[in-house]
Amino acid sequence: MRHDPTLQALARIERKLDLVMRHFDIVDHAPPEPDPFTEVRDLARRGKKIQAIKVYREITGTSLKEAKDAVERMEAGH
Description:
- The chain is mainly α and about 80 residues long.
- About 65% of the residues lie in helices and about 0% in strands.
- The protein has helices at about 5-25, 40-45, 50-60, 65-75.
């Protein structure tokens, strides 16, 4: 199954930024950002796939097919 390249790129950037911050002993005192996809995962887990797809599209602005594929990956545990 194909993963969302944008999310993969973002994860790589975050890992690199974490390394730079550790190297320079920079501490992030900001509270962690809430996961914007928590609601999508919750809806998918409860079997509300159409609502999950709708919320995913509102968050990301992706096409219907891309949102459906992403929600199905979430349902599969990816």
